[in-house]
Amino acid sequence: MEQPLLPVDIDAFLARRVLGQPDLLRRISVSLYKHIHGLPAPNVLLIGNSGTGKTTLMRAVTDFYDAHQELARFRVMVIINANTLAAEIEGEDRTTRLFRKLEAQAKVLFGSALSAKELTDYLENATVCVDEVDKISGRVSGKPNVEGITTQYALLTLLEGEKFLYRAKVVEDGRETEAELALDTGRLLFVCGGAFEELYDHVYACLVNRRDDRRLKEVSEVERKADGSVSVRTVTKFTLRSYLRLADLFAYGMMPQFISRFGSIAMLDDLGREELLQIFLNAPNSPLRLCMDYFRHMGIALRLTKEAAMAVAEAAAKNSRIGARALREIFNGLIAPHEFDPYHSPLLQQTDVGPALVLDVQTVTEYLTRMD
């Protein structure tokens, strides 16, 4: 008999697709375990800079459902941008719009000839991922944002687990008909994420201007120099994780009722050099992998020295506000001059197994110097 999936198994699956963020993956794994076992599952709010893995995580959850046949009834899942949900469409409320997307996904996955009972089951066990949820803040540039407030209220109805009457096309006795489905929205799982960029500035200003009782803490760092000597210095570090309070989210423009419906608020860490290096070398959609495929079509191998790859990752790590996206910006800029006519590139070398474009650390360093 096959052993049931445990949170540690879900975590192991997700960790192969989302590098870093161990705290986040544990929280999401517990929520997914509860969701697939019919237990009250805490909705998850993700807060992190662009490029730290929020969208990657959402896609990894889709892969998780798809990889396990026994979880087929949970595969209905949409990733929707909050701006799309906030847009006002005449004659269609936001909740109905969301269920329209879920219904369409259910029929793509399981066919259009679904009975009312089947469609209800798929919709009630769906996962809803709302990206850029910070864009539905109730306040923009200090002014009320009516669309944001309205969208938060629409989502709140679902987050609170209320019954929702939804009219859909179903098949009964071989005939297509319309039916009103009484959906229990309390069984939906919500994963919402956003950069909340102004939140960083708000919390930092509260600390340095002493607007409340929070104070920046000093920590000691040990520095080992090239000559073998060691020095200790005191530095002041700011991370949002260390100082964030719920009141800061309210000040940002998120309604207390809305935030309180998330059982787990997960802070995503900025990706460091090592995590970025692993993404650069191993992620299926990394700019390096995509570029290797491009040159392979031309019969050319693309090679990077270890030092060159490290230099790209180190440069990306300095752009903490865009995280893994910095890898794409840096590498695409670096390789662009060689993509049009690689056979006349100064980086082209003839090897025993054919032509190869070889990027070394000097090439990367020279490019980065020009960009500074």
Describe the protein in words.
By secondary structure, the chain is an alpha/beta fold. A hairpin with a 5-residue loop joins strand 9 and strand 10. The chain is built from 16 helices and 14 strands. It folds into 2 domains: 7-198, P-loop containing nucleotide triphosphate hydrolases (Rossmann fold, 3-Layer(aba) Sandwich), CATH 3.40.50; 273-371, Helicase, Ruva Protein, domain 3, CATH 1.10.8.60. 45% of the residues lie in helices and 21% in strands.
Short description:
The protein has helices spanning 7-15, 22-36, 54-67, 82-86, 94-110, 116-124, 146-159, 197-208, 240-243, 246-252, 256-259, 273-282, 287-296, 306-317, 325-339, 361-371, and strands at residues 43-47, 77-81, 127-131, 139-140, 143-144, 163-172, 175-184, 189-194, 218-224, 230-236, 262-267, 301-304, 348-351, 354-359. The protein has 372 residues and is an alpha/beta fold.
Number of distinct beta strands: 14
Net shape: globular
Known CATH architecture of the largest domain: 3-Layer(aba) Sandwich
Q: Which residues form runs of ≥5 with pLDDT under 50?
A: none
- What is the makeup of the main sheet? 5 strands, parallel
What is the number of helical segments per DSSP (H or I, 4+ residues)? 16
The largest beta-sheet arranges its strands as 2-3-8-1-11
Mean pLDDT, as a whole number?
A: 89
The CATH class of the largest domain is identified as: Alpha Beta
C-alpha Rg (nearest Å):
24 Å
Distance between the termini: 60 Å
Strand content: 15-25%
User: What count of domains describes the coordinates?
Assistant: 2
The CATH topology annotation of the largest domain reads as: Rossmann fold
Output the helix-strand order.
HHEHEHHHEEEHEEEHEEHHHEHHEHHEEH
CATH superfamily of the largest domain: P-loop containing nucleotide triphosphate hydrolases
Q: Helix- and strand-based class?
A: alpha/beta
> Helix amount, in percent?
40-55%
